[in-house]
Amino acid sequence: MTKTPATSTIQNSILLQAQQYVLNLYNQHHNPKLAYHSYAQMNAVVEMLQKIAAQTKRTPKTTEIALLTAYFRGTGYLDNYDLPKESDVKVARAFLSQKQYVDHAQVLSSIEHSFTRQITTVPDALVSDSLNAVQYGENFSEQSALRRMELEWVSNETYTKKEWQQAELDRLLAVQFYTP
Questions:
Q1: Measured at the alpha carbon of residue 120, what is the angle toward residues 114 and 123, in degrees to the nearest 5?
Q2: CA–CA dist 133, 98 (Å, integer)
Q3: What is the DSSP letter of 1?
Q4: Are residues 25 and 78 in contact, defined by beta-carbon separation less than 8 angstroms?
Q5: Is 75 strand, coil or helix?
């Protein structure tokens, strides 16, 4: 894990352990249909979060909570594609309880907020902005193609070009950023 000013003073063992734990989950439960919700996408979100946290001078603890959220957010797609939030929370709760992580409630809350878009804390904002920046940023076309491919494979439905473009436009118009 690359240390940024926002994470350099944190005892990073919990972050390194979380990263390894999540990598093991993706390796053990590999699903080739998950073209978008993948370990690579999670890593991109984590890297973006580190950049945003450093640029906005977030505290190490705030950054740690947001990074833990980012690591576990999306792991639920491996277990239950239709209800990923519940699976994300279950996996994160098990890991954080085992590690006796003091701020586990904040991480679990941020995971839930990342799905409901109820942004109430700084970690929520960091995660939301990182997800949006990866999803709708400079690699938007690639991310959109992966998302469409995954959705069509998992749901066994197809979208016309026009339907997909309209859906993407609707999502783009709903995007909000929270960090200054």
A1: 60
A2: 32
A3: -
A4: yes
A5: coil
Contact 42, 69 (CB under 8 A): no
CB atoms within 10 A of CB 138: 9
| Mean pLDDT of all residues in 154-165 | 95
Angle value at C-alpha 26, between 24 and 29, nearest 5 degrees: 100
Return the closest-CA partner of residue 107 out of 30, 11, 14, 6.
14
Q: Which of 29, 132, 128 is nearest to 77 (CA)?
A: 29
Tell me, what's the pLDDT at 7? 44
How many Cα atoms within 13 Å fall on the side-chain side of residue 17?
Answer: 12
**Quick one: DSSP state of residue 47?**
H
The pTM of the full predicted model, rounded to 2 decimals, is 0.90
Contact, 177 vs 60, CB < 8 A?
Answer: no
CB 124 within 8 A of CB 114: yes
Cβ–Cβ under 8 Å, residues 70 and 48:
no
Alpha-carbon gap, residue 86 to 111, rounded angstroms? 9
> Counting beta carbons within 10 angstroms of the beta carbon of residue 112, is it exposed (0 to 12), middle (13 to 18) or buried (19 or more)?
middle
pLDDT of amino acid 78: 95
pLDDT over threshold 60, residue 171: yes
Is the pLDDT score of 6 beyond 80? no
Mean pLDDT confidence for 127-131: 97
